């Protein structure tokens, strides 16, 4: 615990330094693509030390001056499986973004999906004896949280205070400067497989880059694809990537739950490839241009050309009806959405005052997906694109860039975490743990 605590604090320090220099890169390491954005910060965005706890910045303060993507290699289910291939892909993306930005970048902030995320709800209370709440009292109440035994080989990726209560007043985002007798906190803690994080850290170091921050891509996607009202009132962001589908739940502008399904758009492509007997590249093309999940009568007559692989077009020429293609795609998309529904049910999503669901990520662009999703998930569903940020090229405004854009917002103004406070040494561990969403029913 201490190692990670120290390394997270060191990363936060490095992030501050890189922002003072004015340039930082964000890197979204996905299963189908690796995206890199280079951000330039102007003076107004330099980190003000008196940020209120957990406030998310608007888009002001930075502009995107370089952007590049490359096909991801060596990453499966959002986790690195072949170090050299991933290293080469990261180098390619970073170098191309640097070239466009005409500036060299030393520091990157990275996000990734997968790694078996698990959410915990922690809480604690301390006596104040009528004194004013300062940084020290916040540190003391965070340190008093009972940390569950989250198991060998796991690391804490995020540990964010999501609600403070002073005496009987709950729902405070920042209690500092106020008087009271007792201070309570609710915290969301996210743990992931340590090996997945360590591989990513090692891979970035091998690219001669310094890691100035690390985040869950489910969190980053939620920041950029959910509008402010959704983040405030309660919404889930479902980020459908190539190798995995991330689920995050937001409330009162904080992420309060996250999970991942180890399936994504690549599995749909693979089903098409096997079902039609075509190479993966052809299956991807057919999925993108002709695919869908909702068949109508016209789709029986709508024929799609699928060439074979001998190169002799006349000899190879085959056609398949669009209805048949939809018949191959739909079962897998339904399976992914059923898994998402199971995750949301486990989180107690139906207890939140608002239950908006936003689909984003590259694989959310399948025709008819929103209709199928609202049937399976039983809620209002909309398709979400990332927020517009200053200088973002048109090519990076699609749903596939939600994580990268969200990571830019996270870099500009991260929410407070455990490691931002000087924690007392008498930290406890092992103790009570609550379902990550449940406190909202009690407190708001």
UniProtKB/TrEMBL annotation:
It is a peripheral membrane protein. Coiled coil: none annotated. Keywords: Cell cycle, Cell division, Cell membrane, Membrane. It is found in: Cell membrane. One of its GO terms (cellular component) is cell division site. Gene3D superfamilies: 3.30.420.40. Residues 24-225 form the SHS2 domain. InterPro entries: ATPase_NBD, Cell_div_FtsA, FtsA/MreB, SHS2_FtsA. GO terms for biological process: FtsZ-dependent cytokinesis. Transmembrane segments: none annotated. Self-interacts. Interacts with FtsZ. Belongs to the FtsA/MreB family. Cell division protein that is involved in the assembly of the Z ring. May serve as a membrane anchor for the Z ring. This is Cell division protein FtsA. The gene is ftsA.
